[in-house]
Amino acid sequence: MSRRLSTWHSLCVRRCTKLGGTYSHPATQYTLEFPQGPLAIASTVINRHDTVERDPGQLLHVLTRTDTVCLCLSKFYFWNDRSSLVSALAVAATGEIDLAYIVKWSTAEGVDLYKLTEFRDRYQHGPINASLRARRSHTRPSPR
Questions:
Q1: How many CB atoms lie within 10 A of CB 35?
Q2: pLDDT for 100-113, tens place per residue?
Q3: What are the two backbone dihedrals, phi and then psi, of residue 101, each rounded to the nearest 5 degrees?
Q4: CB 107 within 8 A of CB 74
Q5: What is the C-alpha separation between 63 and 49, in angstroms, rounded?
Q6: What's the pTM?
Q7: Would you say 41 and 76 are in contact if contact means Cβ atoms under 8 Å apart?
């Protein structure tokens, strides 16, 4: 076990509080949750992930960017949470997403096509992506 994980484990054993399935520690604002599986977004079970290496030998498995967008969109679709639409657009603006998959997933979940169209139009033509496209079109000068 790495030193950092060992330290976290020691702190948790002594001072973590558990509320439902969520653990918290007074030394951090973050919480830790171990949800029961299988992992799903709406009714779609998630069988893939991205892997991030934080430090040498420390791997973190996370949702793909596309699945993170779907998670945000599910809150917009089903709870009419417009801030989740903004979150979905912000996540999508950070890199490549599989828009065809998002359309297929949204359709399979039976969402209101108006909401799907709003996301797709804002993603393709909205101000967040316009500024991202502008940044990507500028080439950086080569190092001397």
A1: 9
A2: 999 999 999 999 99
A3: -65, -40
A4: no
A5: 5
A6: 0.70
A7: no
